[in-house]
Amino acid sequence: MKYNVIKVCSKPWFLGLLSVILLTTSNITLLMKVNTPTPLPDYLDTHNTTTICKYEDTPRVGRLDQNRQHIIFDSLFVGDNFWQLSQEKIVCLATLSTPDKLHWLPQVVTHWGGLVSLAIYLKDSEEQLFKSYLNYLYVCHSEIMANVSVHLIKPLVRHGDIYSRVSSYLSSEPPIIQCSNPTTVMKAFMKFRAKTVANKGVPQNHMRNVARKGCGTSYVITSDIDVIPSKNAEGQLETFLKRKESRECIKCVFVLPTFELDDQAIFPKSKSELLTLESKGRARPFHEKVFIHNQYATNFSRWRSSNTTNDIVISHPVTDFEFFYEPFYVSLDVVPPHDERFIGYGFTRNTQVYEMFLSGWKFYVLSPIFLIHWGLQRRSTRPGWRENENTKNRILFTNFKRELIARYKLDMKV
User: Is the pLDDT at 272 greater than 90, yes or no?
Assistant: First the structure.
């Protein structure tokens, strides 16, 4: 009997079967380890718990960007109301973020009141952090996430594959979390972010294009996650953009004046309140102290003296356009895309606006609507690596400008 067992075990078919069993067992064990969610810290435990809805946990295949340097996952998460509202609404807010700024999303969505398409950039070490925070928002702030669609962009890291996969970012069995202030929760999460991670090399223009095309509406506003719309901005714009004079102006860009606000101030409920804060030195035009050319062409003096009622009107046209102008604006979704060769900071938004100017778009400033960036900025608070990125993009701009001259047969002295 012992000899027969040894004889059977030495057969090639038995050894092959045994190898398959061992390999399968090993793969299952490894898969369980990979898919086991990392529990949240204890301080996010115990109270105000909710059971998350189960989403299909099907792996998603990403697409590559044109330069094959980034992997993009469109509509990674789609809120319960997003698709229906995209058929009913004509304007959508397209925004972008890195994980450390994601806590601004609830305030953006609440103030805006309509569709939001969010593109987020992650490095590998941030993926679990983002997954946990997205779960937190869905569990604790489901009414906010209902109107949001989230898209993911990552650096392309090849491990023998020509594509990457991600599973659903909504866990079917989420950890128990305490529903508290989104900013407080994000600060807690950020303690687990690798200290070596910095927002260098962020493909902002990729993100803007992805977020914009994720909207699905006729009109789009493209902004940053820490730029907050005035309250009920979406409803006011829906009314304004449906007017005949707005609809008939195909190549019109409607600029939303943007201000910086003291961190300790209360968000202004109206243009009048904003102007009062400005008179006290607690608000000022965006980038006024850091780089005045960024918003200078908006002509805030004319805006201050124009309409302060609830209905949106055109305050004035932009008559002194300059190359470094970077307005936040609403327009039909037929504007040129943001050029994706510019990575990081510098020559990102202004190059797209410059191309719009050369191709015949007209810029008009709206009132009383506005945008707010929290915090009065100082040049001294900016890290040195941002200037390095700006220098690299300035070199790239030389070829970009030549292309625009050839394409539009126009130029403006820079």
Answer: yes
Q: Judge if 179 and 254 occupy the same domain.
A: no
Structural domain including 109 reads 41-229
Q: Which of 177, 200, 229 is the last residue of a domain?
A: 229
Q: Is residue 241 domain-shared with residue 306, that is, in the same domain?
A: yes
Q: Are residues 268 and 132 in the same domain?
A: no
78 with 218, same domain: the answer is yes
**Within-domain flag for 394:** yes
- With beta carbons less than 8 A apart as the criterion, state whether 115 and 86 touch: yes
85 closest CA partner among 170, 151, 148, 142: 148
3-state secondary structure 70-131: EEEEEEEEECCCHHHHHHHCCEEEEEEECHHHHHHHHHHHHHHCCCEEEEEECCHHHHHHHH
> What is the secondary structure of 15-27 as a DSSP string?
HHHHHHHHHHHHH
- Same domain for 113 and 197? yes
Is residue 156 within 8 A of residue 25, CB to CB? The reply is no
DSSP type of residue 162: S
- pTM for the model stands at 0.83
- Of 197, 229, 261, which residue sits at a domain end? 229
77 CB contacts (<8 Å, ≥6 apart)? 134, 138, 145, 148, 149, 150, 169, 170
The pLDDT tens digits of the residues spanning 176-214 come to: 567 878 888 888 888 877 776 678 889 999 999 999 999
SS3 219: strand
CA-to-CA distance for 138 and 222, rounded, in angstroms?
A: 23
pLDDT at 34: 37
- Provide φ and ψ at 33, rounded to 5°: -70, -40
Domain annotation covers residue 178: yes
Cβ burial, residue 8 (10 Å; 0-12/13-18/19+): exposed
In a domain, 242, yes or no: yes
**Tally of structural domains, the chain:** 2
Give the model's pLDDT for residue 19: 55
